[in-house]
Structures are given as C-alpha cells and as structure tokens.
Amino acid sequence: MKILEKGEEKISFVTEIEDSLANAIRRSSLEIPILAIDEVEFHKNDSVLYDEVLALRLGLLPLKTPKTMTLQEKCSCKGKGCSKCSVQLKLQAKGPCMVYGKDLKGKVEVVYPDMPIVSLGEGQELELIAKARLGKGKEHTKFSPGLIYYRNVPEIEISKECNLCQKCVEACPQKILKRNKDKIELTDRYKCDLCEACVEICKKEGKDAIKIKPGKEIIFFIESFGMIPAKEILVESVKSLKENLKEIKTKLK
Ligand SMILES: [Zn+2]
C-alpha cells in the first residue's frame, strides 16, 4: 500500500486489491452512523422558502458527528429520543440579514459555519428548533460521510513502432508523458485517468505504438464532507463490512 495523499479531508492511496472488495468497502461507507438534522419545528418562517424546502436544506448541512452518540434504534431510550441519541439546535434570526450555518445554536458544531441557509428581508423573522440524530447513508444521502471512489492504475506499454513524433506528449491532458532520449516515458501513472488521448493521436498518425490496459493496482480516493475525518471513513467502512459479514456467519451457524 502506498499513500499518495493524507489529509483530514482527503486521502488517496494505491493498493493491490480486487475490484469487488474495493466496491464492498465503498458501499460500506453508507453504513457509518452520521449526524444530520432530521426534524424541524418551525415557530416563525417569513422567508421566501417554504418550511419543507428549508428543512431539506438544514438536513444537508454537515454537522460534526460526536463519537459519544448512538443510533436511535440501538439507544437505551428505545428510539424515543434522548440526549445520547439526539441533539437540539435552535435558530433565531430577524431580517434584513443572511442566515448562516453558524446561527444554529446547540451542542454540536456546524462544519461550515459560513454556509448560507436563507436570506431574510426587512422585518422577516425565522425561528425554529431542529433535531439532529444519527443515521446511515443507505437511508438518506444526508447521512453519507463523503465520497469514496476508485479506479484501476493503468499499465502503459509503448512499442518499438514509436517514431518519437511526440504528438502523444502534447495530447495528454494530464501531461504525464515525456521524451527521455530515444523513448517516450510515463512520469506519473497514478495521474492517468485512462482517457486514451495518447492512443487516439497515435492512431491518427498512422501508428499503433501505445497500449493501455487496467493494471492490478487500485487507486482509492476518500473525500470527507467534514462530519468525520477521511481516515475514519475508511476505518469505519471496513469495520461495518466486517460486522455485516460476522452477522452472516452467526446466522448460518
Ligand atoms: Zn436515546
């Protein structure tokens, strides 16, 4: 395994695993419990947006997911809603102003405080109580922790047919082909996204010197929406995949 990027929000690495396993890990990210607003009680809404539209907008607002919270169905309150499984946020604003994420006051942190929610005109008021709970991405996309995607790292072969015209070097949008003395070389194959611009231009020139095929390695990308760090998305995805497999094993016993 080779790490290409390691940050709080983004991780990418190269590893040799089967497509099916990579896809299973990707899909398992939808099993991670993530905090999001799920119920909104409107007391006043003079804004141009309907209650439903505003509630949907609030639901999509990324909130930092505290590790101490539990899923409502697994909570000791049996889904009624208590401090362990739900959290309240209050919003009170009077126009003229722009209402931002940071105007939501409660015991959780809004990931992007300057995210606009709605604009209020002169004298318009907005007053609401929002309830957030943990949920899973497979239930609603507002509970998905981020983007996970992968692609095969390509293998490129340049045959002796190459006459060093260097048209492929110019054609590559990623600029990863380079002439090195009497041959064309690939400088960074992890950047290749298999667009095949080099293959096409080579064929146009009447040659067929470049061959691209998907290799054994996979390049994996994780981009967090901010509710949990990117590293945790990977760790938790693998954990939930394991849990699900364990369940099959125990049920087959
Ligand atoms: Zn509870």
Describe this structure in words.
With 253 residues, the protein is an alpha+beta fold. The radius of gyration is 25 Å and the shape is elongated. Helix 1 crosses helix 5 (230-252). The chain is built from five helices and twelve strands. The strands form four sheets. A four-stranded antiparallel sheet has the order 1-2-12-9. The chain has two domains: 2-28 and 147-221, 2-Layer Sandwich (Gyrase A, domain 2); 33-143, Beta Complex (RNA Polymerase Alpha Subunit, Chain A, domain 2), CATH 2.170.120. It has helices spanning 19-28, 51-59, 167-171, 197-204, 230-252; strands at 2-6, 10-15, 34-45, 86-94, 97-100, 105-106, 116-120, 125-135, 146-158, 177-180, 183-186, 210-224. The longest helix has 23 residues, at 230-252. A hairpin with a 2-residue loop joins strand 10 and strand 11 (183-186). Helix content is 22%, strand content 36%. Residues 72, 75, 77, 81-82, 84-85 line the site of zinc ion. Zinc ion binds next to loops.
